[in-house]
Write a structure and sequence with these properties.
Largest sheet: none
Helix content: over 70%
Mean pLDDT: 87
Order of helices and strands: HHHHHHHH
Number of strands: 0
Distance between the termini: 44 Å
Length: 213
């Protein structure tokens, strides 16, 4: 299995770093938890924003599908076929992983540096190597994700977004942590279950609309 397509190597590593940062000893745990929780939500927003930009901006063919580039796949693979009709700019993977890595960096510079290197070397570069993205797709996605996460530095905004969750954690950790686990599980599997459900929903909606007409 290629590194670029392995969910455990991608999502599993960043999820482990999130949980390490969450439970590590520290003087200001509430602030750290705010950064991490905010970062998880920011990564979701970054992915949605990246997909919205990909839909609304002019279509950009992926390198492996662009006949002008004469791109030669380094391996014989078939998991790229479903990407042909998806615009490559910006990279939603880069948006998500750089958002999470930035949030971890705010809590721990050492773990955050490791997360940023992981986002670059393990998540992003293989996608360029396999012709899924141009380098500028990665740069735009990384800037989008890091920007979303960096908005946590606005104390008032971070308090409004993460404050209610921190109150929930204090009052009912037994209900808060299962939900947080599910959120990080979605990160581990790169939202694939949600994508599949959404695909089924839109196909059903398309069938209904077709029959109505």
């Amino acid at each position: 299995m290629l590194i670029g397509s392995n969910e455990l190597i991608k999502g599993g590593v960043i999820t482990a770093l999130i949980w390490w940062a969450w439970f590590r000893p520290g003087e200001n745990k509430t602030r750290d938890h705010e950064y991490l929780y905010y970062g998880i939500l920011a990564s979701f927003v970054a992915v949605l924003a990246a997909r919205a930009l990909a839909d609304f901006l002019p279509f950009r063919e992926r390198p492996f599908a662009n006949p002008a580039l004469h791109f030669q796949l380094p391996y014989s693979v078939n998991f790229l076929d479903h990407m042909i009709n998806w615009s490559s700019f910006p990279s939603d993977h880069a948006a998500m992983f750089f958002a999470l890595a930035t949030s971890i960096f705010f809590v721990s510079r050492s773990a955050g540096t490791l997360a940023l290197l992981h986002a670059l070397l393990v998540v992003s570069l293989p996608r360029v190597y396999m012709g899924m993205h141009y380098p500028t797709d990665i740069l735009a996605g990384a800037a989008l994700g890091a920007g979303c996460a960096a908005s946590a530095k606005i104390v008032v905004l971070r308090g409004k977004i993460a404050g209610p969750a921190m109150g929930w954690l204090e009052k009912s950790p037994q209900t808060f942590y299962p939900v947080l686990f599910l959120l990080t599980f979605l990160i581990t599997v790169i939202f694939n279950p949600v994508r599949k459900v959404a695909l089924i929903f839109f196909k059903m909606l398309e069938i209904v609309i077709h029959h109505l007409h």
